[in-house]
Amino acid sequence: MAEEEAKARLQLVTQEGAKVSADARLADMSVLIKSITDDSGILEEIPLPSVTEPILRKLMEYCERQNYIQPQLIKKPLASDRIEEAVTEPWHADFINSMEEEVLVDLTMAANYMDAKGIFDLCCAKIATMFKGKTVEELKQRYNITEDLTPEMEEKILKENPWITSDSATA
Question: I need a labelling partner for 73 at 20 to 30 A (CA). Which of 30, 47, 79, 86 fits?
Answer without folding.
Answer: 47
